[in-house]
Specification:
3-stranded mixed β-sheet; globular; alpha/beta
Length: 296
């Protein structure tokens, strides 16, 4: 990256009335680093973050972003424990969670356009965009977006699930939805499901498009807003074990994050209030901790 990025860092309390956005992204490879300037100090960031910052900066105004790798000293276990426990509140209070998928490819605009149609439509159109474009282009566009690494990571689950507004961004293309409105989120999900059931979808050979990771996130967004009571039936509400099991296919560099990365969305579930990220624990200790709070 030829141009040096410059920024500033300031300290704030979560309870302060500050308008900020929180970044949700994949760190990517740590074998190579880019350098940015923060208050004239050189700070190393991953190439993934450097590209995100280049694309997300505004041309004529400052943009206030909370970014984990910059705002948390990853080498200080005590600070990391403290800040990771605050992350659910940080993402919940952000005015927008910016989901950075990476640089755009030739097909990205099509994928974003179709997802925006699903997110913003009140009901199915007689001529949805995926029916007015060549099927091959639609397939490449949706695969380009849905096969991004972001959809496979564990940490992004709570970051997106706790958001007020979520904005999926790929290069210069983006769309948003009000993720704390369960009616709108449910409609977004149902638009996707209805399209997948359509014979036109099957005929266009779009069956291989995997919306499961996105639908899982929207289900959790709805769950954050609804009472988890299931009435007078004997069915139990999902707990930490159920959610961790459903998310087990998602990846993390640190295996402890398969548990700790869900703390923010299980705090209101049975046993979830006792789950506290602690990176002094070894991997097996973290799983013994999980066992101790599960009700079998």
């Amino acid at each position: 990256m030829s141009e040096v990025l410059r920024g500033q860092v300031f300290t704030a309390k979560v309870c302060d009335n500050i308008r900020y956005e929180a970044l949700s992204y994949v760190w990517g490879s740590i074998s190579k680093w880019e350098r940015i300037l923060i208050q004239d100090m050189t700070v190393s960031v991953t190439p993934s973050l450097a590209r995100a910052l280049c694309n997300l900066r505004l041309p004529d105004a400052p943009r206030v972003l909370w970014i984990d790798s910059i705002c948390i000293n990853q080498a200080d276990i005590v600070e990391k424990n403290s800040q990771v426990r605050l992350m659910p509140l940080i993402y919940e209070r952000a005015r927008n969670v910016v989901i950075w998928l990476g640089e755009a490819s030739y097909d990205s605009a099509v994928g974003i356009h179709i997802l925006e149609y699903f997110a913003s439509s009140q009901e199915p159109s007689a001529s949805p965009p995926w029916m007015t474009m060549p099927p091959g282009l639609v397939k490449r566009g949706l695969e380009d977006i849905m096969n991004r690494d972001w959809f496979r990571r564990i940490w992004v689950v709570q970051e997106a699930a706790l958001s007020q507004i979520a904005s999926i961004t790929c290069g210069p293309y983006s769309f948003s939805w009000r993720s704390n409105d369960c009616t709108l989120v449910r409609r977004f999900a149902r638009m996707i499901k209805f399209a997948e059931l359509s014979p036109d979808w099957q005929q266009a050979d779009l069956d291989e498009i995997n919306f499961r990771p996105l639908l899982e996130l929207m289900d959790l967004q709805i769950g954050q807003q609804l009472d988890r009571s299931f009435g007078d039936t004997n069915r139990m509400a999902p707990d930490i074990l159920d959610i961790a099991y459903d998310m087990r296919h998602r990846s993390s560099t640190d295996p402890r994050d398969k548990i700790f990365g869900l703390a923010g969305i299980v705090s209101d579930t049975i046993g979830g209030e006792d789950l506290r990220p602690d990176y002094t624990m070894l991997v097996r200790q973290a799983y013994k901790h999980l066992e101790s709070i599960i009700r079998f």
